[in-house]
Amino acid sequence: MTRSTETATALYDIPGPVARKRHLLYGIASTVLIVALFGWLLYLLFDTGQFTAQKWNPFTYKGIQELLLRGLGNTLKAFAYAAVLSLALGAVLAVGRLSVHRPVRWTATLLVEFFRAMPVLVMIFFIFVALQVQPLPALVAGLTLYNGSVLAEVFRTGIHSVDRGQREAAYALGMRKTQVTAFVLAPQAVRAMLPTIISQLVVALKDTSLGYLITYEEFLHAGKLIASNLDYDLPFIPVVMVISPLYIGMCMLLSWFATWVARHQRRNPKTEATAVSSAEPGTLLPRVQ
Q1: Per-residue pLDDT of the chain (289 residues; tens, 9 = 90+)
Q2: What is the dihedral of CA 246, 119, 105, 200, to 10 degrees?
Q3: Among candidates 238, 211, 222, which has minimal Cα distance to 64?
Q4: Which of 57, 195, 262, 265 could cross-link with 258 by S-S, CB 3.0 to 4.6 Å?
Q5: Please, which contacts does 116-119 make with residues 24 or more away whose CB atoms are closer than 8 Å?
């Protein structure tokens, strides 16, 4: 007789025959509902003429393709700048919040709480309009201030998540606070922080689309120019159907990378138990007479 591999937990019991049938019916009903909704949406798109050749012809022109590629490149450039600067700012603010000096700690805390509470769009508009900054630096600065403040909390929480005994052992060896943080706490905290860091970078990637509001020629801005063209009968829906999968694909790629990092860290040999060799007989000491 084979033993079932399913095990119950404190929050979930193994479903019985009746529950399995009920879950199957729920699954079938949900699938039918989703298929029906998808079919209804397709009917509306065909009924409103969203798949006519006139609306899709723009994407066959070389100029339109170059416009979209240029917008995609500008989006990736803004994201790259914002990601690097956000990580650097987050590290600096996290060090400030962990400082033993009260003025430094209070200043860092005030900056983190202020930029976390401030809407990203407001910061971008303020930098662009009030400070008269160019679109790309204004977009990158707004994304950096917000995401950097969030990452600062991620870094600080990661450092505090390390077992207290690690810190005490390092101090017992005579290491200074900077050495303890840099060589003992931070390397161990990185394993726990990496998935969250990459997830926050997904947010930064999506927020680059706010650049079109300050006339930065990113991917969404290029799509807006095409969608508002009267010569192509305002192909708004086709533009959305072209741009959305690319945005979703880039975000899913970063999310997949975060999942891969978490799985890789769990299989990291440094986190696994080290095999201890068995004791072997050695040379006996001579008996003291």
Answers
A1: 444 444 545 555 677 788 888 888 999 999 999 999 999 988 888 887 778 877 788 888 888 889 999 999 999 999 999 999 999 999 999 988 888 888 999 999 999 999 999 999 999 999 999 899 999 999 999 999 999 999 999 988 888 877 777 777 877 887 877 777 777 777 777 777 887 888 888 899 989 989 988 889 888 888 888 887 766 667 788 888 888 888 888 888 887 887 787 677 666 555 444 444 444 554 444 554 5
A2: -20
A3: 222
A4: 195
A5: 116/146, 116/149, 116/150, 116/153, 118/145, 118/146
Joined together, the tokens standing for residue 131 give: 């400070």
